[in-house]
């Protein structure tokens, strides 16, 4: 299936689309050979939810036509993904955190807590960096996240696990859309977006489908053989991938200290650390950022 006009990519990087790839679609996770995670004391094959879908590993460069569709000419926060670089001042402060060689999120957070002067300067500099992107709209810090290396996908659901669960017991959800039960598909474009900065030592992967949830919903309403199933914020992703397994996934390589801005409530997406050997660390802010 060819790319449709939908979510566009706005690259502020000097190499443009050179680090952007496309594939032939998605498959249920059981049909993909999953890589082992061997890091620190861990050695396991990640578990997935039963209805998880992952990208097919037949990546290639974009054709000229696909590049034109993906770049588009409309840029708004709800239908645009932007990739860019942070400032030299921020990069220097990120380096001063000294977290890239650590082996767990606990160790990362302990190190961050011990660097209060650096964190204070970083927070102030981040505010200066993000304010023009927010265009006077409110934004806030969300988290510093850490993922193991060589993960097919990084988003996981631990809500149904018992207290004291171990890392290998986590279940990954595959390509998904963010959101809660209070959100509706037809109004997801009003939910803003996020900026995610790679604080790790190695490049990380960001996957996305260039369709808004409303576009995916309309495709499903026309494509489902049985229209009796209600399409909700929770089941739209697996329904879409089951119905349209040949809709392409786009892959962006995000180098250290680069950022992406994405409407993660309003599109199918996930991160990946395949091929990496060090901890994947990233910082997330929520807002309505535009570039």
Provide an overview of this structure:
With 291 residues, this protein is of the alpha+beta class. Helix content is 23%, strand content 25%. It is built from 6 helices and 18 strands. It has helices at 64-71, 88-97, 105-114, 116-134, 213-223, 236-243; strands at residues 8-11, 20-22, 26-28, 37-39, 42-44, 47-48, 53-55, 60-61, 80-85, 140-147, 156-157, 171-172, 193-198, 204-208, 250-254, 258-262, 269-272, 280-287. The strands form 5 sheets. The chain has a 6-stranded mixed sheet with strand order 1-9-16-13-18-10. Strands 8-2-15-14-17 form a 5-stranded antiparallel sheet, with no helix packed on it. Strands 6-12-11 form a 3-stranded mixed sheet, with no helix packed on it. α2 runs antiparallel to α4 (116-134). The chain is globular and about 60 Å long.
The tally of helices reads: 6
Order of helices and strands: EEEEEEEEHEHHHEEEEEHHEEEE
* Low-pLDDT runs: none
- Total strand segments: 18
